[in-house]
Amino acid sequence: MSFKILAINPGSTSTKIAIYEDTKEIYKKNIEHPSEEIAKYKSITDQYEMRYKQIMDFLNENNFNVKELTAVVGRGGPLPPVRSGAYRVNDAMVDRLKNRPIIEHASNLGAIIAKEIAESIGVEAFIYDSISVDELDDIARISGVADIERQSLTHCLNMRAAAIKTAGNIGKNYKECNFVVAHLGGGISLSAHKKGRMVDMVSDVEGPFSPERAGVLPTDKLVSMCYTNEQPIVKKKLRGNGGLVSYLNTNSALEVENRINNGDEYAKLVYEAMAYQIAKAIGELSVVLEGKIDKIILTGGIAYSKMLTDWIVKRVAFIAPVEILPGENELESLALGALRVLKGEEEAYEYDLN
What we know:
Elements: E1 4-10, E2 14-21, E3 24-32, H1 35-38, H2 48-61, E4 71-75, E5 86-88, H3 91-99, H4 108-121, E6 124-128, H5 156-169, E7 178-184, E8 188-194, E9 197-202, H6 219-228, H7 231-238, H8 243-248, H9 253-261, H10 265-288, E10 295-300, H11 306-316, E11 322-326, H12 330-342, E12 349-350
């Protein structure tokens, strides 16, 4: 028996969807939402009907009968801390995402739309590896200031998918392995995986700078900046105008590489500094695993950059072998997660948090 799964990943200006038959992608669509269309809605949940209709229109245009679906899986939005893996989308989850969202985030719609489609045809809806997955060891929560607790906010979906795939590639089960995984994208985050749990991480505000984000900064100078600038200015310097944008006025790694290839030494210094900081963060998480690491994994969109990954590998290869799995692969990660549940390889949790 084959399984057909619809995966839904809502973003700020798009809704990405794909249909998988077992592990094979059979349909894929990136539905764009122009900024003037998004501007009509006061909140994320107000966009629900518009996005739902456009998904159904695409399926109808391709003569796909939704009754063929075995399950629907949506991107898991910000929730109170949850475990890794699959959760069934139930009324409690929808109520939280609709009426008491932790933050206004497009991914809140993933579960809501998935449940609507699934209920209409009598199948189950899931989320998989929500943004809010938190499996940190207690020792990893200590920040250095008693009223600030470290929270697990990472690119969990792609990082765990890369770890699970790498475990299979080396003939092991994910729960038997230790990995350090670095997600290299517009934001950069890293995580330490110990026998099936993501026990520590370096979030995109705690570690390397990235194309648009500043990463960790000297706290004394950051405090001074906060006292001499308005809060929105500082926030924008940290997220949006940080990283490569701050130094090189571009968030495009490809453009930076072109500058380097044309002899721009400053661009090379900054780009290599990003690789240097990523390598340092890998070293930091290697200590968490006491050096017992099956693989270091580089994933995310910028992992396509051989220039960057070569610099990283040069610095970390002494720790463990490096696996490079470029791309964000979010739709595939969602679909394959749901497939493992349908095949009985994983259990889905029941969401019961307030």
